[in-house]
Write a structure and sequence with these properties.
Blueprint: H1 8-13, E1 24-31, E2 37-40, E3 43-50, H2 51-64, E4 68-73, H3 93-105, E5 110-115, E6 128-130, E7 133-135, H4 136-152, E8 157-160, H5 167-177, E9 184-191, H6 198-204, H7 207-210, H8 226-237, E10 242-246, H9 252-262, E11 266-270, H10 272-283, H11 289-303, E12 307-310, H12 313-319
Parallel strand pairs: 1-3, 1-4, 1-12, 4-5, 5-8, 8-9, 9-10, 10-11, 11-12
Antiparallel strand pairs: 2-3, 6-7
Helix pairs in contact: 4-5, 8-9, 9-11
Bound molecules: ligand PBG.
Amino acid sequence: MRRLRQQPWLRELVAEHRLTPSDLIWPLFVLPGSGQEEEVASLPGVYRRSIDGLLPQIEAALATGIRAIALFPVTPTELKTEDGREATNAKNLICTASQEIRRRFGDQLGIVCDVALDPYTTHGHDGLLRDGKIVNDATVEVLCQQAVIQAEAGASVIAPSDMMDGRVGAIRRTLDETGHQDVVIMSYAAKYASAFYGPFRDAVGSKSQLGGGDKKTYQMQPSASDEALHEVALDLSEGADIVMVKPGMPYLDIIRRVKSEFAVPTAAYQVSGEYAMLAAAAQNGWLDRQACMLESLLAFRRAGADMILTYFALEAARCL
Ligand code: PBG
């Protein structure tokens, strides 16, 4: 076996998997206002920026070969309500940001918009809360409205991350009826109730809202494997174009099963906690940041992911 490992050129020739900038989707946190920039304490090297500050970042990403971004709005507390109605305000932050980004970059950039209520609710849940329970179908109606205003604001990809049942089908129908047949749906199909989302909830300010609460009545439990295939099958039958597994590295087995079983475009999300672990170990001098970053991203490709959402996107693309 060692004959083929002798030289870099030979190792490159026999490489089974590759990572390229165009495999990466860069998640970006959007702040209201202008001239705003804050580093996320639990995600060193990741910034929340107002739209004016994001535009040059996106320009830099495009120059490296990254072709898509995912937007996550940081909603001011005073706009959060029990029913999260800011989610369906066509002039809200995510819509304004997509409009401006679309105006600036046209069709050369994919804009992925998250559909879920957690940035907008006082309780921090992805759905509507009634009598202590997250209600499914009433939430789905709101998610459909959210998807339409995002599509109207220039989103190329609608990414429901809420894990309500039947939302992909409902969103697809609504988008089609409102003239958005071409808008892609990337469903967070196998999304686990994971403790690795902590730093993201800090970044968008939903952790304090959620208090000690969790999302276990709608996100999957970490012991599930067959159930992930069931979730993916349902989302595909409802019209998902791309399915996602989330988190990433602790769930590489799920990515592989999904890819082998369905052979459809599959995304992996290297979530905030995964980034935080690598960043913290590198800061301590315990891990080589660049080498571990690239190895972790290549592992997603080997596991079967066609595309990877990662906070390392710009840095990784620059190395590549
Ligand atoms: C919210 C959403 C979450 C993430 C993406 N969309 C958090 C959650 O479900 O609580 C997590 C991303 C990350 O941790 O990087 N619907």
